[in-house]
TrEMBL record:
This is Unannotated protein. Keywords: Oxidoreductase. GO terms for cellular component: cytosol. NCBIfam families: Rv1155_F420. Residues 8-127 form the Pyridoxamine 5'-phosphate oxidase N-terminal domain. One of its GO terms (molecular function) is oxidoreductase activity, acting on the CH-CH group of donors. It comes from freshwater metagenome. Signal peptide: none annotated.
Length: 130
């Protein structure tokens, strides 16, 4: 079922705030999908998925190429959601701090990394059953 990412139902937002891991799909240079498990935070105010990572990671390098779409999928039994949109990589301290805070609120405080960056996905499509 498609949802309007700018007006998600209460139960969808609640599911996005429960503690679940997800998969992140980015595209490799050859066009094939790169799928990895991730923790993520959903910012309902601005329609962003935020993922912390480190600069040399494959997912970060895939996003760094620019203009790429990405998808985060969360599954819990029969409930599932996929959030899609254009991804960008940021090393801006405020953006990275927001991603770390979102991760810490949902999972746990991550360890420090000097090479930490954040992937932000501006969500324009939400599919699923929450």
């Amino acid at each position: 079922m498609p949802y309007d990412p700018k007006n998600l139902p209460e139960e969808v937002v609640a599911f996005l705030n429960e503690r679940h891991l997800a998969t992140l799909t980015t595209m490799r240079p050859d066009g094939s999908p790169h799928v990895v498990p991730v923790g993520f935070a959903w910012d309902d105010r601005v329609g962003l998925v935020r993922i912390i990572t480190f600069a040399p990671s494959i997912k970060a390098r895939n996003v760094l190429r620019g203009g790429t779409r990405a998808a985060v999928s969360q599954v819990d039994g029969g409930r599932w959601l996929t959030l899609e949109g254009v991804a960008r990589l940021t090393d801006d301290p405020a953006d990275v701090a927001a991603a770390v805070a979102g991760y810490a609120a949902r999972y746990r405080q991550p360890s420090e990394r000097i090479d930490r960056v954040a992937i932000e996905i501006g969500v324009d499509r939400v599919l699923g059953r929450a």
